[in-house]
Amino acid sequence: MNTDFPDSSPAFPTGGDYGTAFDARECAALAWTEALTLVASSQVPDSAYAEVSEQFTEAEIVELSMDIVAINGWNRLMGAFHAPPGGHPVA
Fold this sequence. Notes:
AhpD-like
């Protein structure tokens, strides 16, 4: 992973505009993450699947998708309880 991400960036980039901070595989994973995260408001675009399937095997896409679903689930659960990020100790 290229770690030359600009320090002045106010937030993580979205909408597929990742610049040169990430390689093609990482960009595909980020686009897939964004598509699955926003699935409640829109369907996953065929282009997102096409991009991720060029970079990952089917098994890797399943594993990546399960990771995305798990993290999104935890984010929603913590949001429901108004838990601040980093608000509890890691076991």
